Amino acid sequence: MIKFLDLQKLNQPYAKQMADVAARIIESGNYLNGEFTQKFESELSTYIGVPSTINVGNGLDALRLILKGYMELGQLHEGDEVIVPANTYMATILAITSNKLNPVLVEPDPVTYNLNLKKVEEHITSRTKAIMVVHLYGQACWGAELERLKVKYGLKIIEDNAQALGAEWEGRKTGALGDAAAFSFYPTKNLGALGDAGAVCTHDEKLGSTIRALANYGSSEKNIHDYKGYNSRMDELQAAFLSIKHPHLDRQNQKRRELANLYFEGLSGSGLTLPTVFNNPESHIWHLFVILHPERDRIKKELIAKGIETAIHYPTPPHWQPALSEFKHLNLPITEKIHREALSLPLNTGLTDDDVERVIIGIRDSL
Ligand SMILES: *Cc1c(COP(=O)(O)O)cnc(C)c1O
After folding, report:
1. How confident is the model at residue 263 (pLDDT cuts 50, 70, 90)?
2. Is the CB of residue 238 below 6 angstroms from any atom belonging to ligand 1?
3. Is any atom of ligand 1 closer than 6 Å to the C-beta of 89?
4. Are residues 98 and 186 in the same domain?
């Protein structure tokens, strides 16, 4: 059986180090806001190339807190519009709606599946205040067009970097490209915790300190609450686990690129729609290897019968979700096609070249 993702296997190499650090934390009595939290924040700041990192509870909180931070600073207001790719994961959109901001769903580029930068300007109105780009499947979504729109309309550019830790755009890391970026360390992400964890990275230290207060009941000074804040923290255990795994991330992302290349070699000319790398190879860290095929459901079923697990990211587009019924009238054919045809093949550092060969043969037999 080739599993889509075997988390037990992926975490096994770090089990001893994690158990040791967990014992140390239990012994210390400091479970929140301690040395490991600070250590991971400074490691992530250095790695991404930003002055300010704030650990938070999860990726959705990171996105929500960025928007809330801009609202507290008077740079966003209730009812403002935020442009977002229509084919993103629900969390990106929920971050917008939960702040009483209005998401404006824009179709992705049919080749990269990332926000179509050429289609953004026609959706900009006097209420548009931000663009939320999503580096979907691990591929950087960036371009000169974004910087032009940012200057022309005075927009904030916020990155949802939940799927792309380690990806680069012309030598800069995703997460350092825009004004602020949200990270998720959900266990299945390329850098996964053993529970929930997230972070915000930003160049804007004022926004950073506002978010730090918002994540701490709106307080930056004990017993003084400047904002109606939340509680959103990464605990010491998760921060310590992430510091253990983080030094291995670049090597693992490189391994993912090698496995992706095997898929390209084995599946080119097969009739499947393969992913496209838009920029240099470092712009993609292959969180997911997503192919499209009109008979996706049949292929998925046949692969299961051959002992090969695949996944679907995601079966239902956000504008067809019951929670977003106000958007159900939208006509988003590219988004709808992706959701109808997308199939994620197993791709992670627990797989061998032989496993990937088996998947390739399995798929070729099913076509
Ligand atoms: C995983 C993910 C999130 C949410 O992160 P959580 O830590 O699960 O809250 C947000 N956006 C995208 C694109 C994601 O893949």
Report:
1. very high
2. no
3. yes
4. yes
